[in-house]
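Purpose: get a first structural picture of the assembly so the mutagenesis plan has something to point at.
Setup: two entries, given in the order below. No constraints added.
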Amino acid sequence: MKALATLWPYLKRHRAALIWGFVFVVCTNVAQFIIPRVLGLAIDRLRAAPDLGFVGWCALGIIGLALVRGIFQLVMRWFIIGASRKIEFELRQNLYGHLQTLSFGYFNKMKTGDILSRSVSDIEGVRMLIVGFMYLSNTAIALPFALANMFQMNAFLALVSLIPLVLLAVTMRLLAPRLHEASKIVQEQLATISSRAQENFAGVRVVKAFAQEPSEQNRFRDESDKYVRMNMRLARMRALTTALIYLLGDFGILVILWVGGKGILSGSFTLGDFIAFQAYQLMLLWPMIAVGWVLTLSQRGVASMGRLDEVLKSVPEIQDPIEPVPLERVRGEIEFRGLTFAYPDAQPVLRDVRLHVPAGTTVAVVGRTGSGKSTLVNLIPRLFSSPPGTLFVDGVDVNRIPLAELRHAIGYVPQETFLFSDTIRENIAFGLANATDEAVERAARQAQIHDSIVEFPNGYAQIVGERGVTLSGGQKQRVAIARALVLDPAILILDDCLSAVDTHTEEEILKGLRDARRGRTCFLISHRVSTVQDADLIVVLDEGRVAERGTHADLIEADGLYADMYRRQMLEAELEAM
Amino acid sequence: MAEEINPEDEVIGKAIDARLVRRLAGFMRPHAKLFAVSVVSLLVVAGLRLLGPWLVKRAVDGPLTVGLKAADEATRNAAWNDLLWICALFTGLLVIHFALRYGQEIVTNLFGQRIIFDVRTRLFAHLQSMGLRFYDRNPVGRLVTRVTSDVENLNELFTSGVVTIFEDVVTLVLILGYITITQPRLALFFAVIIPVLFAVARWFSRAARDCYRLVRSKIAKMNATMQESISGIRVIQIFVQEKKSQERFRQINGEYFDANMKTVWNYSVFFPAIEILTYVSQAGILFFGGWFIVGRSLTFGEFLQFWFYAKYIFDPIKEMSERYNVLQSAMASSERIFRILDTPVEVADPAEPVKPERLRGEIEFRNVTFAYRPGEPVLQNVSFHVKPGESVAIVGHTGAGKTTIINLVSRLYDVDEGAVFVDGVDVRRYPQTWLRSQLGVVLQDVFLFSGTIEENIRLGEVSMSRGRVEDAARTVNADGFIRRLPGGYEGEVQERGATLSVGQKQLLAFARALAFDPSVLVLDEATSSVDTETEALIQDALGKLLRGRTSLIIAHRLSTIQRVDRILVMHKGELREMGTHEELIAKRGIYHRLYRLQYDTGSRKSAARQSPQPAK
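Result (structure tokens, whole complex):
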């Protein structure tokens, strides 16, 4: 059971609760197995003599025992199931923690839905292993207890009544996986119907344009019909299961009536035994069903554990260097030395990029979509690893700088704005522990979002994305800028971060950022040429290569790609005005 | 996955709403026979089960008492014989009960499934008849929930609701009736214990439902947090905030844990409580039974019979309160389902539709104004006329209203003002599906359905021969690449065509349009650039498609524009310029600029690439 190795430390941590739980499994069974005895005693006494007083005491005794048993059962459940929930909590927390360390590339391969299903259903599957342990140990205790009592009353009858109980366990063991399989098929068919409907609703334009409604209805009808058939298959199995449980349960009564009846007639068995016996049988009914069920459950639990291990054991692609070179204080000098970079299994995105950016200067990177602009700046904070000896910050290979130190020095504004569903203040202060209100406000002013924020109903305490108040794309982007500025970073990366506002506004905001840019190395990516005119250096990327470089005036004069982009943009502005 | 909980989905109302029940009964009517069989077999099953304890009574009071007291061998043998007879009867009873219960459950499920099938297909059919405006208003996810989860809830109602509640009630009534008649004093005892049991069960099912909802909302929140941190992993890592993010998650994970512990507590109390009540009732029967036995008003056999019955009463009561929750959520779901079924069809077919043999292909827009959302007109007073056989290109900047024109011609939406005429007849006077089947539409994003390539060309037209599919594909130069695909025409489209190139999808869409041999071609050209070879194939195919057909093309390619007879220039929702390419260029207006922006860059770009890098 290799899969359980991961679970072992968790079990060890909660061993006290689990052991106590087990003790109460025993206690519950002890209390429970006295009851039929008392019952039998009362009946036999009644048969012998009209002694109502004794019966009354027996009745009270039963109630007392039932109360004690009930309390034991409560404690047992609380201990064991409680422990299973705690282990679930810890497992999930560790899963989450581990996910945080995995690199961005991992999440491209692994679907979010897949991760969520591991976090919910697989962890639940593992938890059921522990709950299964409770049921199994209950059976393990109950069975000898009951059998001992039954054998004492009538050995032959005990043997015969074992038959339906064993049959029950065996049939459950056989049926449970089939039931599971059948219900999985039903779920899958429902998923098919769901995606069929999803596809239809999403493609409703095509469906209507080609007048395909009738045929779509037929296809949907076919799937629904199949679903009915799958469901009926499951229903037949379920019906068989319940009918069998009834049959084998009542079969026990028949056996007692027959074998016990014979005993009564010969005087070796009493009516009290009859009732007590039946009670014992009944007590074994569910524990025996549980055996078959738990075995199936544990198989699934082990499989779930395997899937969790897959995530927990995956190694982060990007890690701290083994021999780190700590930087005293990052100045922000960046150099690309013949950098060629490709994503796994793909053509290079960047080819032989040579670029030296002195600390404190602003570089604008322009180029068409897919020319490699974003990749270029994503390499600086090591979102992806650059080949050794190709990218340097303050003269040190980025791969050798401690990850946290490097990233702390970078203020990054991603192309796709991502804000957390938290207050605006928390979003701005995201990267800075103990950020003061002044610092947050200063950053917001620099990003020119302060005035908008104070107009929200809750100001800085406004929760992003909460009903009623939605931030416009441009506002979100400016919050993201503030989030980067509040860090007071040596390096500022603005990855086409103002795409949601019009050209004029972008120009205004960037102008406003001029102060904030002072003293920092700044990478400015834009798909609009006109907004980057005042950069110290403009780099034009084309198919991963540096195609042109220079100041705005240089590049216009050169009349190349840059000049072309510039003209087209002017044309667009003209058109907009018509 | 982390499906956002729609407030509308969480409204829980009454368990029984007369108006809804009446409508649901309408769905039951066609399956009345199944319902009758289900109910009758259920009555028999419930009754049969009560016979078992009665047989036990007969055995105990009969042979077992007689035989025990008998001194002579003969009487004892006779008693043993009687006992064997009773055992035989019991065996028969078990077998019949087994078979009937098995059959009854299947019939009940069949009944539920049939109804569900009807509801689901009718709902889907109604959704198919809704216009695009309806789809603009309702997110796809919500509609999917209607045809899946909501319908499933109804299934619960019919399989484990209506019929089984009936079983529970019947069992209760039968047992209580029997006890009241035979032992009214013992019935008094039950009269005390049953309400207590009911109260406990009701308390629990309420608590369980609340807990369940709490747990569900916490799961949703937890999943949302996890999803957020996965989408935001880049931001978290760049800002080195992994710890903070874990703390955030710890909080919601903890809330989920607390919610679960509440459930654990409920169950930990409920199960023992029910067991205790069971024992209390047994102790009660023991005491009162003993009392009556002493008083000679009860036999041991009857005592045993009641002993068994007491157990039989417990299960239905435990479950009945559970059923209440099922009823409630089923009512809420049916309410939502009926709300959709009651939504009137916006774009409806006319009462007396015009349906000529075939369209000539004349299109006219007369003073058309249209808005997707009130107050935000997308088209304003647009008028133009396309003669049969003429090909016309529509050009314009993004958001100029080009696609809307296509939507209005095929009547996916109805105009707000003015009218659209095809062959001189208002499109609103044609049957919708007929009109659309006469138009060959190629959309910009080629939507491929899951299925084979052939099915994607033929669509639902089952009668279309394979030969015709292949002919169409060959004509538009798609045959070559299709044959090279794994499986050829029978190959499944992978991931909605993600494995196909843009050019290939475009050709596939051409084949789809041509296979239907439409009188009018409506085409929204793909914007993405393709390699020169494919471009040549597309242009060649386009030429064949246009031949002899009226065509309306939203053009993005220079070569396409040069091919058409006339160009309409849309700008900001208005038709601003119209004419041939040369005329419009000469005009030096919007078209001239659009032309320079969209089509006049290729040469310069390659020229730029060849130019030497400027010195720094």
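The first strand of chain A starts at residue 334 and ends at 342.
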